[in-house]
Amino acid sequence: MSPRRVTLADVAKAAGVSRSTASLVLSGRGAELRISDEVQERLKAVAEEMGYRRNIVSAGLRTGRTMTIGFVSDTVATSRLAGDMIKGAIEAARDRGVLLFIGESEGDSKLEHALLEGLHDRQVDGIVFASMYTRRVTVPENLRATSAVLLNAVPKTPSPLPVVVPDEVEAGRAAARVLLEAGHRDGIHLIGAGPGVRNVPRDSVAAVERLIGIREVFAEAGVEIASGTRTADWLPEYGFEATSALLARTRPRALICLNDRLAFGAYQALDDASLRVPDDVSVVSFDDHPLASWMRPQLTTVALPFYELGRRAVDALFAEINGETTGEPPVHRIPMPLRTRASVTRPRS
Q1: Do the beta carbons of residue 254 and residue 347 sit within 8 Å?
Q2: What is the pTM of this model?
Q3: What is the rounded distance in angstroms from the CA atom of residue 85 to the CA atom of residue 130?
Q4: Can you spell out the DSSP letters for 323-334?
Q5: Distance between CA atoms of 187 and 259, rounded to whole angstroms?
Q6: What CA–CA distance (Å, rounded) separates 226 from 246?
């Protein structure tokens, strides 16, 4: 037979206090109602010794909270790179004593709908709706049945939901500054998008905002981007193809790759052309994928702050749950730190 669950009444009796006093102390309201420190400490010690656990279902009936939240994404959970978003969300939820339910749709709209309905059926207090990469999304109609936040995604049409995204514009500025500070002023080419902000993969918010930042800093410095190549995807093979085609017509002095996987392909193309990074061509990129520190030379890149994104999304969600947001839905832009490594140097004269 399973051991009987210790009840609040059991703890109160063992501590020699009333059930209402035990309830107030163990729900964290003892100091607020001026219950003495001695009584509070005794109750907590007895509760711990007896293995008491709060009845969350019962508490939820009184407070209207279930102390659970949902996290629904496309492919975040199975992505090695973006998985830190979930880690950040889990730890932020745990800090609040909240349980996080995770569901992944793999881009299937019917499955996404079913996941959201399942969370609503379980009466979660709120939902984080996330994307693996920063993009424009159609907000599901059934998402707003409870408090919700968009993570790494922006709505295609006006929405009352708060948004948590990386600060991609400032990341673009940082990448451009790295080259300017190293003395690069010509022969700078973009791999993956550009040179204009319309030359980007479909729905890619990251590409547009990174280009805005890059173009802004170069324009202020009077530096012209030599060329840009929009690729079908941001994978190594496309970085290799785009860089090989570039090398067939000109000799670049620096490359800004729109992500690290493109940069990996660019490295291979440069090596095939007997060009060395950074002595012949400097390279800077984005994301701080694990391969960036394994490439030789190690790649200078602007990191995606996945862990911080996950934590901030939960913070923003609880601000919604607690009614702490007013006015226009906030957009939280999370800084992207620069990882300075060995792929950029001063250009040869």
Answers
A1: yes
A2: 0.81
A3: 9
A4: T---SSPPEEEE
A5: 19
A6: 11
What distance, in Å, lies between the first and last C-alpha atoms of the chain? 82
**Looking at the chain, which runs of residues are DSSP E strands?**
68-73, 99-104, 126-137, 147-155, 163-166, 188-192, 227-230, 254-257, 282-287, 300-303, 331-334, 338-339
pLDDT tens per residue, range 194-246: 999 999 988 789 999 999 999 999 999 999 999 999 999 999 999 999 999 99
Cα angle value 206/151/312 (rounded, 5°): 110
Q: What is the pLDDT of residues 312-327, one digit of tens each?
A: 999 999 999 988 877 7
Whether the CB-CB separation of 334 and 164 falls below 8 Å is answered with yes
Contact 316, 148 (CB under 8 A): no
> Do 38 and 15 form a contact (C-beta atoms < 8 A)?
no
CB proximity list for 320: less than 8 A, separation 6 or greater: 126, 147, 148, 149, 162
C-beta separation of 162 from 309 below 8 A: no
Residues 6+ apart with CB under 8 A from 123: 60, 66, 68
Are 155 and 139 contacting, i.e. CB atoms less than 8 angstroms apart? yes
Query: With 70 as the cut, is the pLDDT of residue 266 above it?
Result: yes
Distance CA 239, CA 283 (A): 12
Rounded distance, CA 181 to CA 176, Å? 9
Q: How many CA atoms lie within 13 A of 283 on its CB side?
A: 34
> What is the residue-wise DSSP string for 143-205?
GGGSEEEEEEEEESS--SS-EEEE-HHHHHHHHHHHHHHTT--SSEEEEES-SSTTSS-TTBH
CA dihedral 325, 326, 329, 334 (to 10 degrees): -40
